[in-house]
Amino acid sequence: MVQKPTLETVAKLAGVSIPTVSQALRGTGRISEETRRKVVSAAQQLHYLTDQKAASMRSGENREVGFVINQLSNPFNAEVISGVVDLLEAEGYLVSILDTRDDANRQRQQLESFIRHGRGGLLWVPTVGTDDTTYSLLRAHRVPTVTFLRNVSPSFDHVGIRNAEATYQATQHLINLGHKTVAYLGGTQMTLVRRDRISGYQKCLSDNSLCRPLVWDSEDTRLEGLNSMNTLLKAHPEISAIVCNGDMVALGACLALQRIGLVPGREVSVVGFDDIQDAEAATPRLTTMAVSPVKLGRKLAQVLLARIREPDMPVTVSEVSAELLIRETTGPSQNAVAS
Prior knowledge:
Layout: H1 7-14, H2 18-26, H3 33-46, H4 52-59, E1 64-69, H5 75-90, E2 94-99, H6 104-116, E3 121-124, H7 132-140, E4 145-148, E5 157-161, H8 163-176, E6 182-185, H9 192-207, E7 214-216, H10 222-235, E8 241-244, H11 247-259, E9 269-274, H12 277-281, E10 287-290, H13 293-309, E11 317-320, E12 323-325, H14 334-338
Parallel strand pairs: 1-2, 1-3, 3-4, 4-5, 5-11, 6-7, 6-8, 8-9, 9-10
Antiparallel strand pairs: 10-12
Helix pairs in contact: 1-2, 1-3, 2-3, 5-13, 8-9, 10-11
């Protein structure tokens, strides 16, 4: 069996002492450049990698963080993660990604494992039904924590979106186009995010003295958006516009319209939420409430770094506004055009 490379084997190959190898690889100590080159060359030949866990124990600093998220398969989450990883890796951190799938028991197991392995920080989308003992667990272990999207505890920094404001703006855009029958499509559980988005939609209808809100459940995937849009139109053929819980369900809704010979933005207008890359690439291009997921991920990473570096600073809450990007899936109501 091939021997695992160690400080000892690197030292032997380089012809120096073990402490010299350690200092050379860490860039410390009074070591000549020639000796440092010999050590680095030996380490490369042996494929030696520094034991980060041991280094963390010596320095008291752990440069691994965890991102506990819900529904990793959602492209919005994938783009957020990309922003997080880009910034944190540039700062010398390793990011581990875990998917709770909105299961509180699964989340508890993941967080306990995370703490046992001594991660240096946590980015976290809390599941529906997270209990107080979970918050207490993180506080007890003094884990630098930033919640994302769902603001659930005053003990932790938070990065989120002004959801009610965004869906109010989306709904008003459709009303300004002459639409009188506007539905809300997407989501199944009444999470904090979905509650706020529905609230903004409902308030806009009320402020414009329009008909009662119509909220139609759907899993936030393209396939379920397609299926749910079909059932919505069969039950409520009078609907001329929809505000969606996310871009994926909106893209599915647009596909459903196209399959029955309708044109999104002409017979039925559709507004998404997130501005994932597929929103711009779709045919027709999706009108959406843009929050720039990659930039949002970078903001999330910045807040965590600030918490790690200044653990006693006051708790911060950062919420970004969404921007309405008008593309091709919204247009004047056919009733308004006819009149």
